[in-house]
Amino acid sequence: MKKLLFKKKKDQGTPSQGLLPIEAVPDISPQDRGSTSSTKKIPPQSPVTPWKLFLLFAQITTVTLGGGYVIVPVMGGALEKKGWMGEERFYDIFARAQLFPGPFALSTALLVGAELCGFWGAFAAFWAVLLPPFVVIVGVSKLLLTYQEVPQVQAFLQGAGAVVPGVIAAMIWKNLKRFPWRIHRLIALGSLTVLLILLPAYSIYLLLGALPLLYWWEGLWKSSK
Amino acid sequence: MEIFEVALTFLQIGLISLGGGWSTVGIIRNAVVPRWIDEKGFRELIAIAQSTPGPVALNAATMIGWYHGGWLSAIIATLSVVTIPVLFVTIVLLLSRRFTLASSRLNQTLKTTSLAMMLMTGWVLRPTTLDPILLSYALITFWVSAFTKINPLWAILGAGVVNIFVRYLR
Predict the structure, then answer these.
(1) Mean pLDDT (whole number) for A116-133
(2) Which of residues 79-118 of A touch B (CB under 8 A)?
(3) ipTM, two decimals
(4) A138 contacts chain B (CB < 8 A)
(5) CA angle B65–A99–B114, rounded 5-degree value
């Protein structure tokens, strides 16, 4: 199965074309990748099975705080250490996973699982990404609900909630800096953003409509050059 | 029944959750505020979702489900938000012999779209308070996340802890 699935590796575009090569994690920048790429071949210490894959990924998603950009580099490092997959191949898959909707930690894990052990590998990866955070979240939510009247808990939540605009602003800042600006993209970005802000109730339909339109718009400008 | 509403809402969110968690947060917010949670509650929830293990958007879905209706809602919301992404991966894996997904044109389309989503997220979650202390937390966090390599998680937890003391000093 896996041979069929990943035959077209060459056509997948370079890793640096990844959707958002952006955020805080230095490990996923192309320079770093170059130095750790598949030049060093570590022999497999033990063959990979869906169950072992589940354990490895579940361990990672239990302890890595801070979302996909933290999970992905840890995953890549662990897979290389185990000798299951070279970093270069892993970041090829990561670049590809960013084209899918959904949390890219999940799509990356699914694609890696499918490549390593076919269907059951993807199955194991799916539950390894979903289960540990779920248990932690429900636990934390229960605790917070129980102690929500405690003034310290309220103060903590007020402080933690207040930083959210800062986190988002930083994310926007980094993305604006790396965006490949052209005048037609500025027009597209500006109009879509304004529409999304003005019509919050229709955001999902707006986006579904915008995707083919933007694709056409992008092609229009490429062909005219 | 309400549980179907939860499932349908998060299925739709899963469909357009492009480009990482923070692009999706704005869409989630538009879908659930004020129906299931108020503005202030949503911001606290996002802060917690960012400081617990796992992808932010996934965590947010689980938490909203849980606050809305306990275990069943939490499970339904979590599974719904990943249903379409998983279908996408499956279909592409099955078809990838015949055509390839990645092109720079598609890539650029997704980049533009997800940046617009992120800008919208920034707009809907803009600071609503005039309290200088709370605003300073946001400013410091912006600086830490934009110009240093420190995980923003520490800014979130730090602001929470600092605020406990600040409240006692006032």
Answers:
(1) 94
(2) 95-96, 98-107, 110-111, 114
(3) 0.90
(4) yes
(5) 65
